[in-house]
Amino acid sequence: MAKSQTELRPLGKSVGRKEDPRFIRGMGRYIDDIVLPGMLYMSLVRSPYAHARIKHVDPSAALEAPGVKLVITGEDLAAMDLAWMPTMAGDKQMVLATGKVLYQYQEVAAVIAESREQAEDAAQLVDVEYEPLPAVVDPIQSLDPDAPVLREDREKKSNHIFHWEAGDKEATEELFRNAPVVVKQNVRFPRVHPSPLEPCGCVADYQSSTGKLTWYVTSQAPHAHRTVLSMVSGLPEHQIRVISPDVGGGFGNKVPVYPGYVCAIVASLKLGRPVKWIESRTENISSTGFARDYHMTAEIAAEEDGRVLALRVKTIADHGAFDAAADPSKFPAGLFSIVTGSYDFKESFVEVDGAYTNKAPGGIAYRCSFRVTEAAYLIERVMDVLARRVGVDPAELRKRDFIRKEQFPYQSPTGWTYDSGDYEKTLDLALEKIGYEELRKEQAEKRARGELMGIGISTFTEVVGAGPSHTFDIMGIKMFDSAQIRLHPTGKVLARLGVRHQGQGHETTFAQIIAEELGLSTEDVLIEEGDTDTAPYGLGTYASRSTPTAGGAAALCGRRIRDKAKKIASHLLEAGEDDVVWDGVSFSAKGLPDKSVTMKDIAFAAYTNVPEGMEPGLEATYYYDPPNLTFPHGAYIAVVDIDKGTGAVKVRRFLAVDDCGNVINPMIVDGQVHGGLTEGFAIAFMQDIPFDEDGNCLAPNWMDYLVPTALDTPHWETDRTVTPSPHHPIGAKGVGESPNVGSPAAFVNAVVDALAPLGVEHIDMPIFPWKVWEVLREHGVNK
Amino acid sequence: MRTYQGDFFIDLPRPTVWAFVTDPHQMGSCIPDLLQLDVESETRFRALVRVGVGPVRGKFNLQTELTVTEPEKSGELSIRGGGMGSRVDMKTKLTLSDTENGGTKLDWRCDAVISGPIASIGGRLIDNEAKKITEKMFANLRESLSSVSKQAAAASADTEEPGSTD
């Protein structure tokens, strides 16, 4: 049960979510709820072809249609030098196509009309003549020297985007040469999509009278969007106000800047009226930030007993037509080099090559800290391949190879410094809680009867919370984050942060952090995010970074307030500052606990009775640049039964033991874990965006791209261990993405474990029943 | 690209079949769900057809052009067009050959590139839909040809045995 919100010292307690009363009553204010006087609507004309030359675009019929105010083409934007825009990954991307189109559903023209219906009808009338070109949808074929060059705008005449590597190649090769055991496995992480319930959209409102643009947009990073918009458009940054209202799910889908946004802004600038653009479901899935699409090969060199020596990974990354993965600028493959995971590899060498294809751009979204999901899935899958090869139980193998508790801070062979962890403790708790020994006995009995039951383990390590700013930036903007706290005279608090929540519960958890620091209750603290005119600058919410960065800022900002409060307390208590002590709820003079002043007393005094010479008021801003990332970890165990007749996999049990450091709100952490596991389950069993050879996207809707419902979703069991981050102000690490990162491997390992008696070593996601059914038939079951 | 192909036999001599399949008025009328036919020349016609594949429903505007490869034997029908943001680009090869009993065998092969929502949203349904459309097209063709065949039979009966028909 949720605890009352008036309780003092709320940190670590299951305080009820302050945002829920409006969400569960349908009173959230999402982007499509924004309606402004005189507002127009925009609809986009999109390419039916994945690759084609544009012969001409004729908007004349559309312009004559009822209600149409404006049609924007690529040539119109080119005249404004806006036909292309920079991507966050340092590439550029077409806003509206000129010359040619590079993926199906690419934006070709924008139609603005009095109503949404009129805009959509008129969009059908824009006459575009195409000359189809051969499409390249496979990144391996795209890297073939004979493949047609897709990006003719680039100097480099090939589809190769980047080569990136980490680790010591020579030292790794040396260990492989002499290793008693080497295992190798190709692993595909399919192209998936975050598919948030609320698609992308915006309302651009340019007021010619003031020269100010207010841009309502469903954004996870409003400040970054403001800066990018200013840089692209030349509009002065103080004349741009970005407001990200309630966000109906983001999962990384709402980090990039999309062409529709630029078109809506251009339309508002040209017409002097507000312009709304809301995507359809198909537009969202087919054209906005997808996730993964990694073709990976991993090799492990090990001793006979399964002790790992070295890891070698080669990856082809399909980035689509433009490199629009919102990675930190020095990390074209994100944080993928965390791929050594929880294991003490002596050496590792990791290579990633990015490729252009005739598919939509994107690549890092979906509840993932910059490619850590691909990395965690790969290593957890391949550790199981090794376990089977050396004949060691997968739980035992992991224990042999874990980085030991005493090795932290741990230097990984690819250059990361893990802050803290206790992997064995977490796995032991998971094994005990799920009843591992008994499950293995049951499995042996079932196998003897020919039944297919599997147990899958994943003991992943994450890397989240980017900054620190010396290593991490996006388009040059350093990845710190911020908090600003203002105490009103009656002791109530308004706090604003540089991040933007989308369901994470910031209005509650950040209120808990600040209330804890100030000796107040969460009810006393109002959290505001998402308005760039009021909130301090920050890089936004994604990659599980809010608690590691803005959460740190909130705590330190609270302490900054408390420093001034202590001076006021000393004045009110008539005691020397050194004699004033804080007990977590109030200040008192040493040895005189009966006479105390609370933050409420101090807030009033700050505006009515400050000591002489002190500046009145009680507010502070803190920009927190974390000294390192945080490294949450977990031990997940899935138990599955497979129906030999249909190939259907039933997840009988799933236990997630997470260690995200100190917990701010256990109920919210459990909720985050439940949601992430549900997504991980969907990725493992239901989700894929395939393309046919002509580049037609074959799953741009919820009939073909599946989102799990309550009926599909297994029951989740959760528990946790606590290994605080040594450097974070409240010892927290971030948890939002752990379940999505850690669970796919547990599901797949369980399925492969069930099929292992047949000789199956690997099966690629998504594990549809028909795929299992085919594997069963191939191995002589149910012929 | 998707390929569909088939063949069928017609109880008419090859030149008659050839004259039929190369006549835009005749051939155009065989298109299923035809709403409007505009014959532009002896080798070109425009057709407005009703299309429905799964949730994608609407009208397609198709431009058709016939190229003769070898007179009375083979030709190619190129069909291009679309609607509702979707496109089709089809090349259909028709080859006629004589059968032993004086009839004609018609071999057809259609290479189709289908793009846009009709291919992506209707992806799972499109092969069956295309099969249905082509089957209907050739069923119409056969029906029209059989009426041509009957007319021809009647006409020849008229010339050979005047006044003898019932």
UniProtKB/TrEMBL annotation, chain A:
Q: Which domain of life is it from?
A: Bacteria
Does the keyword Oxidoreductase belong to this entry?
A: yes
Q: Does the keyword Protease apply?
A: no
Q: What are its cofactors?
A: Mo-molybdopterin cytosine dinucleotide
Cite the GO molecular-function annotations of the record.
anaerobic carbon-monoxide dehydrogenase activity; copper ion binding; iron ion binding; molybdenum ion binding
Q: Name one Pfam family in it.
A: MoCoBD_1
Give start and end of each Aldehyde oxidase/xanthine dehydrogenase a/b hammerhead domain: 25-134
**Keyword set, alphabetical order:** Molybdenum, Oxidoreductase
| SUPFAM superfamilies associated with the record | CO dehydrogenase molybdoprotein N-domain-like (SSF54665), Molybdenum cofactor-binding domain (SSF56003)
Write down the PANTHER family for this protein, in alphabetical order. Answer: ALDEHYDE OXIDASE 1-RELATED, XANTHINE DEHYDROGENASE
Q: What is this protein called?
A: Carbon-monoxide dehydrogenase large subunit
Automatic annotation (TrEMBL), chain B:
One Pfam family of this chain = COXG
This protein is called Carbon monoxide dehydrogenase subunit G
Q: Which domain of life is it from?
A: Bacteria
**SUPFAM superfamilies from the UniProt entry:** Bet v1-like (SSF55961)
Species source reads: Melghirimyces profundicolus
